[in-house]
Amino acid sequence: MTNRPLTHPAHPPAALPPPCPPSPPGQPPLPRTPVLCLQGITKRFGAVEALLDVSVQVHEGEVVGLVGDNAAGKSTLAKVIAGALQPDTGLIELGGEPVQIGSPSSAHALGIATVFQDLALCENLDVTANLFLGRELKRSGLMHDGQMEAHTRSVLHDLRANIPSIHTPLNQLSAGQRQAVAIARTLIGRPRLVVLDEPTSSLSVAQTAEVLTHIERLRDLGLGVIFISHNLTDVRAVADRIEVLRHGQNNGTFGPDAAQSDLIGAITGATRFGGLGG
Amino acid sequence: MSRLTAGSQSSLREANKGLLVDTIKQFGGLTQVELADATGLSAATVSTLVKQLTESRLVEVRPTSRSGRRAQLVTLARATGLAAGVHVGHRSLRVLLSDFNREIVAEQSMPLPREHPMDTVLDRVALLIVDMLELVASSLDELAGIALGLPAPVDVSTGMLSVRGVLPGWDSEHIGEVMGKRLGRPVYVENDANLGALAQMTFGATHPYADSVYVRASYGTGAGVILGGRLHRGFGGTAGEIGHVQVDPYGHICRCGRRGCLDTVVGAEALLASLQTSHGPLTLRDVITRAVDGDPGCSRVLADAGRTIGRVVAGVCQAVNPQAVCVGGELADAGSVFLAPLAEAVQEHILPNRVAPMEVLASPLRGDEVAKGALVQVLDSTDLFAQGGDGQ
Question: Which of A65, A82, A101, A241 would be A235's cystine partner, CB 3.0–4.6 Å?
Answer without folding.
Answer: A65
